[in-house]
Design brief:
4 strands; 5 helices; mainly alpha; two-stranded antiparallel ribbon
């Protein structure tokens, strides 16, 4: 294990670099997203009653094979609640490797 750049926790680098895509079954279940999006829209007005944020940043990561476009409704909700939300700005989430880890670390530093 190697310490994370900030020393807050340890990361098992071998496990991170050996990450594999999910089983095909779980990939197929991503089709449920359209129903979840519809439910999100139905309950959006009630969600404004959730506890208010204090302005701190929130980084919203897209699911496997998704992009920032899919997280836009959630980020708008966080913004409406008083948080400062950010998308990951790294395109479609299709892999995790050392380069992606570096890009994500730089994003966290930026926000």
């Amino acid at each position: 294990k190697q310490p994370c750049k900030h020393g807050r926790r340890e990361v098992n680098m071998a496990a991170a670099t050996m990450a594999r895509p999910p089983h095909p079954f779980w990939t197929l279940t991503e089709g449920r997203a359209i129903f979840e999006f519809g439910a999100f829209g139905l309950f959006r007005k009630q969600m404004k009653n959730l506890p208010k944020g204090d302005g701190h940043p929130v980084l919203v990561l897209p699911g496997f094979m998704a992009s920032d476009r899919s997280t836009r409704p959630m980020r708008r909700l966080f913004d409406d609640l008083g948080y400062k939300s950010y998308g990951w700005e790294l395109g479609r989430n299709v892999k995790f490797n050392e380069k992606r880890e570096q890009e994500m670390s730089e994003l966290v530093e930026r926000i």
